[in-house]
């Protein structure tokens, strides 16, 4: 992954992808996964997402990975969490209060680090990556997750030529190709351009948000 690119965006405050509230799609559709409250949830490219707090409030143990340590430090400080930093192989990890947040490159993760994960919440990882990296991301994800995993995936779909990513456009057919062999269930699909004035001002004509439940 382009470590310098993402670290620079966090340092400059270029974090338009960060939301100041819990994603309503998460609270609406997460129950569809029918997980035990104690299930461990994996959040790739987690940043300082408030969605992690919501997941923990449901009783889940939350694991995440993020390149920019400044994002994790901001999350810990802003939420007044008492997490301790420790070394876990190639990763620095902030641990405590139901969280295990790894700082480092997603592609350096090994299966043993996710051996207890039951589900994945991906709102901002897949759409943050260009096409070739998306393939590698999904291949690696599927290789290191334990059998029986589920995923709640949120994507955006728009004419890519109308705007440079990230976030990138990930059409429905690409999702189904990337997760070929899995059960892919479309839960929600709506045009949300009216809710994103910045995208509309850039000349975008449509912005479709989709939510999927994916089962291995």
Structure description:
The structure is a single chain. With 216 residues, the chain is an alpha/beta fold. It has helices spanning 3-12, 24-29, 51-57, 69-78, 131-144, 172-178, 197-201; strands at residues 40-43, 61-66, 84-88, 91-96, 99-103, 117-122, 150-157, 183-191, 208-215. It has a single domain (3-9, 21-215), classed as Rossmann fold. It has seven helices and nine strands. Strands 3-4-5-2-1-6-7-9-8 form a nine-stranded mixed sheet, with helices on both faces.
Quick overview of this protein structure:
This protein has 216 residues and is α/β, with parallel strands linked by helices. Helix content is 27%, strand content 26%.
Low-confidence stretches at least 5 residues in length (pLDDT < 50)?
Answer: none
CATH topology term: Rossmann fold
By helix and strand content, what is the structural category? alpha/beta
How many helical stretches?
7
| Overall geometry | globular
Query: What is the subunit organization of this protein?
Result: single chain
CATH architecture: 3-Layer(aba) Sandwich
**Overall mean pLDDT:** 92
Q: Please describe the biggest sheet, giving its number of strands, its sense, and whether it closes into a barrel.
A: 9 strands, mixed
